[in-house]
């Protein structure tokens, strides 16, 4: 009989703890909602060119990304996996994404003077793999 009362008491304590956790969770959710915060959602995203931009605009942004921006542009060099297709658009997409993935946690944006945008579609193709960092 003593074992049954101990088990009953343990169940009561566990139920009280679960109720307390539920209340604390509700308080946290209402505090976040009151502050206007949304639950964090981080989809996989890549930074690619905006197809509406001209090659001249894209080339300037590409030059910056591969130069002062310190993007990893080695894969878009001749005989490397992302050289083909050899177009400003394709090379710029790779460079923009390299830069953004590298620096987004430090506040970098995917804009390049309105030459780029974010996509949730992986732009990798063949042996050319676009980096993704959560």
From TrEMBL:
Its main location: membrane. The keyword Zinc does not apply. It is found in: Cell membrane. Residues 45-130 form the X8 domain. It is a lipid-anchor; GPI-anchor. This is X8 domain-containing protein. It holds the Pfam family X8. It comes from the Eukaryota.
